[in-house]
Protein: Electron transport protein SCO1/SenC
Organism: Rhizobium grahamii CCGE 502
Amino acid sequence: MKRWPVAMLTVAAVLSALCGGAATAGSRWGKDYFPNVEVVTQNGERVRFYDDLIKGKIVLISFIFTSCTDLCPLTTARITQVVDRIQDQIGKTIFVVSITVDPENDTPEKMKAFADAFYKGPGWTFITGKPDDIRAINAKLGNKSDVATDHRNEIVLGNDNTGEWARNSPFADIENVELAVRDMDPAWREGHFAPMAALAPATDHQGLTLDREPGQVLFKKICAPCHTVGVGDRIGPDLLDVTVKRDQEWLKRMIMNPVRLRAEKDPTLAELDARFQGVRMPYLGMSASDATDLISYLATKSAEIADLRAQPEATHVHRHDDAAENHDHGGMVPSNP
Ligand code: HEC
């Protein structure tokens, strides 16, 4: 407890104010707390919620519904970034569980298509099941609303062995979410009680210096979980040269409101939809000036990459920099440049 990072303590303190302390450290959410009901995974397997998914594990739990057009795809893409960073533990000590908040509509098949758009490795289970059972699980985790769109966009972190549970935000810096997850493991904690600042990678704040493009910070936080520039398709298409390929006005409308564009049956978007199954670019609340900043960033970035590719000597060093910026991390990029 003493060694918890400051960010976690703050989250715990805020939550104990909000929820009467239900999810603060030390509370025992264990065998007798969670419904041990049967749930169905994205692969159609029937498992017991507590016995098979929680018992003896460190877990990161998120709440989604597959028809969600705003935050759930972004939340899930950010968890993908965390999972990329904990490859050494995922499926071994740390497990991710994404629970639907819309069990009436989210069949295992829909959960599978959604899951596959984000991650195909071990250690991450997407679950649905009988509506009453799923709602009971959600309620125990703090999601009491019956309306899917009202669900919390928080994540819950827990260690069933120690009984420590906390809430966190998938929109915090990815490094901090990674540390908060790792910090659930007392063995890891033993070796890592350095201050958070010392643990954060040195590249962390690179994107925040003022001489950078204004769209860059926005891109890193909101778009990079799904898109790269010049590194390859990820959850969404690679955006290298998209400003050349597409009309400026179309790009602006796409960034500001892809949901409306889709409703209008835009043929370019229909083509992209066919290529990227299981996930749709969400509505992210971008204003016209955000969109302009982002487009300008994408144009500058593409031009920089074209320059670098014209000078093979420098390519290696700068590629690494690109990867760090695009993904919040240096490795585990699924596609090749
Ligand atoms: C949850 C994942 C996700 C996030 C977050 C996201 N996108 Fe997308 N994006 C997609 C997908 C998937 C597509 C492909 C179209 C579709 O099926 O919706 C796409 C398509 C696009 C396209 C069209 C690409 C082309 O080839 O024409 C642009 C431009 C774009 N996104 C920009 C952005 C920007 C800018 C942001 C950040 C503000 C962003 N996206 C955030 C998933 C995402």
The radius of gyration is 20 Å. The chain has two domains: 6-199, 203-327. Residues 6-199 form a domain with the Glutaredoxin fold (CATH 3.40.30.10).
